[in-house]
Write a structure and sequence with these properties.
The complex is a heterodimer. By secondary structure, chain A is α/β, with parallel strands linked by helices. Chain A is about 40% helix and about 25% strand. Chain A starts with a strand and ends in a 7-residue tail after the last helix. The chains are: A alpha/beta, B alpha/beta.
């Protein structure tokens, strides 16, 4: 049986992690490679790096980061942020990235998904969707959840799948930062509607939230940032809790 | 007369530099990125180099056939190198990874393609369902069916990292490791000096690294 995946997410700017991290045994909490190594040692199944570099040198810094991670880390990782064209993706793939995550660029130009899937295979293409509820609708948002679009979440996800998305990273902006649990209702709706893996994101605050999301929605993976970075949840403890709830994990 | 110790020194002095030969020759044919694979070999201190022509095969003790993407397209690229007859005649340990493993089989449903036919089994597509999404992506358990040094020091039921939509049919004669995803399939195949693994050892944590080290000693 396929194991449910636990994925720490690292925000990176100019090659350094930007969100606070308070692991006690790190020499340099801003070094994404050292952090990544630490997480892979703890038993993380996969890593996501979101690059928020805004300079003109961004592609170069992303490629350097990806190479540094690929040299040191023996688990798969995804890189997202500012990937707008085939050439960006090509450079990252050749630097050792396993997957790329596309968000705004795909909403603005959905054909990019077809092109990426044709060039690199569907397994390489993760579509990240930031969703927020407006009235009774779930609406796709851009710019980290600040900019609403015309697209409804499920309809957009189904289009992305049909165009060649290999995986969906679904972040509920309503739940993100609340530490009140994942958006299990929406995640179940989406997970039941698609035939590609779904990564749950937004709202993780304690171990039980991970148990809940896997039991209630059957998503393939769960992603979190601050609860891991601040040591509020330790991955080995989380994996043992999942295992004792009969959820298949890699230990 | 030289002492054995002196002989050792001489052979060390004459040994090709790390990365230049004597280790693993990675067969290059333009199918996929190998940065992570070479990075893993470097971390493990396993010497490697690249094979672009028939002459290059003599420089190495064993070979890896990498590959990602479409099996039919990969086979066409491999044919275009002119190396197919040489590969089929190899006698040294040879490991196909992912699509590189599928190339060892006789046929793939992907692109209705005839492959190297070194191991007489077929590569088929997973039937997708709500419980078994395709591609099969993530960590799954593998179970040895035979004794083999490739899997030394790796417990039965260990997790390895898979990403694939096509699988190699289970066949008792050739399956080295079995795995299950909706149906039983070969996570690893073996015939004589030819080995294949469907998962990515370079992305499969410590056990993946153990497997690469094991291969470097077969």
């Amino acid at each position: 049986m396929l194991a449910k995946r636990i994925i720490p997410c690292l925000d990176v700017k100019d090659g350094r992690t930007v969100k606070g991290v308070n692991f006690v045994d790190l020499r340099d909490a801003g070094d994404p490679v050292e952090l990544a190594w630490n997480y892979s040692n703890q038993g993380a199944d996969e890593l996501v790096f979101l690059d928020i570099t805004a300079t003109v040198e961004r592609r170069k810094t992303m490629v350097e980061l990806v190479k540094a991670v690929a040299r040191q880390i023996n688990i798969p990782f995804t890189i997202g942020g500012g990937i707008n064209e085939i050439a960006d993706a090509d450079a990252l793939l050749n630097a050792g990235a396993d997957k790329i995550s596309i968000n705004s660029a795909a909403v603005r130009n959905p054909k990019l998904i077809d092109e990426l899937a044709a060039a690199f295979g569907v397994q390489f293409v993760v579509i990240a969707v930031d969703t927020r509820s407006i009235g009774d609708k779930n609406v796709v948002h851009l710019n980290g959840g600040r900019l609403p679009t015309e697209r409804q979440t499920l309809e957009w996800i189904l289009e992305a799948e049909s165009r060649g998305a290999g995986e969906i990273l679904l972040t509920s902006m309503d739940h993100d930062g609340t530490k009140g649990g994942f958006d299990n209702g929406l995640l179940k709706t989406v997970n039941d509607a698609v035939h590609i893996p779904v990564i749950a994101s937004g709202g993780a605050g304690k171990v039980e939230h991970f148990v809940d999301v896997f039991e209630k929605t059957n998503v393939d993976a769960a992603l979190a940032a601050s609860v891991f970075h601040y040591g509020e949840i330790l991955i080995p403890d989380l994996k043992r809790a999942l295992q004792s709830n009969k959820i298949e994990v890699r230990i | 007369m030289k002492t054995p110790d002196q002989n050792n020194k001489k052979s060390l002095a004459e040994a090709p530099p790390s990365g230049g030969g004597g280790g693993i020759g990675i067969i290059l044919y333009g199918a996929g990125n190998i940065f992570s694979l070479t990075a893993a070999l470097e971390r493990l201190g396993i010497p490697y180099g690249f094979i672009n022509s028939e002459e290059d095969f003599d420089k190495y003790d064993r070979y890896i056939i990498p590959g990602v993407g479409h099996a039919g397209a990969a086979m066409n690229k491999l044919k275009a190198t002119g190396l197919v007859p040489k590969i089929k005649a190899l006698k040294k340990p040879t490991l196909g990874i992912c699509v590189g493993m599928q190339l060892l089989t006789s046929y793939s449903e992907e692109g209705d393609s005839n492959l190297l036919d070194i191991i007489p089994v077929k590569t088929l597509r997973f039937a997708d369902s709500a419980e078994h999404k395709v591609p099969h992506t993530g960590w799954n358990r593998v179970y040895p069916e035979k004794e083999n040094p490739l899997f030394e020091n790796i417990p039965s039921g260990s997790h390895f990292y898979f990403v694939h939509s096509y699988f190699i049919e289970y066949d008792k004669a050739y399956t080295l490791l079995a795995a299950d995803y909706g149906n039983q399939f070969s996570a690893s195949i073996w015939l004589d000096n030819f080995y294949g693994v469907q998962f990515h050892p370079e992305k499969s944590g410590e056990f993946g690294e153990t497997l690469l080290t094991n291969f470097s000693k077969i």
